[in-house]
Amino acid sequence: MKRVIVTGPVERIEEYARAAASAGWDAIELALLAIEPCPVDRRQIQGDRFDWICVTSSSALPYLAAALESLPALRSTPCAVVGARTGERLRELGLRVDLGPAEDAAALAEGLRARAGSGRRLLWPRGSLSDDLARRMRAAGFEVCDPVAYTARPADSAGSIAPPASEAVFFASPSAVRAWHALEAAGETRIAIAIGATTFDALMQETAPRFFDTISLPQPTPEALGFVLAHLEPETSP
After folding, report:
1. β-sheet bridge partners, residue 3
2. Among 23, 39, 71, 167, which residue is least crowded by beta carbons within 10 Å?
């Protein structure tokens, strides 16, 4: 049976592994990152009114839920979101999703630039290893407040277990790509699969020499991973 290593996303790794298995692959879960939520530090949030809240990972939701308690004005702020499931969870928090779901942070930035004028204030609760959205929006003239909502560090198990040989490996973030790059991989993997464009770019920049081919999902969903794997024939890849 063809084998795929599923490295994330950490909070939904089982869903993506099930999608891979439903496509007829042997799915091996190997979380490369550990996610640790951060408490809300009011000193990191300048002001209490923003034009948009940007959410690019569901890992930021516990932080945002806590922030709503100390900053009730946020409840009336429209949200821009990456991922349909994350959008659903924002609505469950009582927030309004006015932009998205976008495929990734790059697509979200494009949508915000088209929808909102420069100079707008954005609140982006982010991961400790991520700054892509803030860089893009500041370059476009937006003001960005980007408190760290969660830390992402290499998982303890990732450093002690070499990945087995496989036909494909699936990455859900640039941080996971960097974690993989630090591993001494066992065997060879023919194909790298990225959850979206930002992760694809990280793969091309950091690990392209390790793979015979690199592709990106059409949508950042478990269903899209299952679809791609169902139509993927590793033996015909370059």
Report:
1. 26
2. 39
What are the residue ranges spanned by the domains of the chain? 3-32+155-236, 35-152
Is pLDDT above 50 for 238? Answer: no
Cβ neighbours for 127, distance < 8 A, ≥ 6 positions apart: 35, 57, 59, 60, 148, 149, 150, 151, 152, 175
Contact 24, 47 (CB under 8 A): no
Alpha-carbon distance 217 to 215, whole Å?
7
- Per-residue model confidence (pLDDT) at position 186: 46
CA 115 to chain CA mean position, Å: 22
Q: Which amino acid is at 237?
A: S
Q: Which residue has the tokens 């929006």?
A: 137
Does the domain formed by 3-32+155-236 have CATH 3.40.50.300? Answer: no
Predicted TM-score of the model (pTM): 0.80
Of 26 and 156, which is predicted with more confidence? 26
Nearest Cα to Cα of residue 81 among 95, 70, 65, 66: 95
DSSP letter at 166 equals E
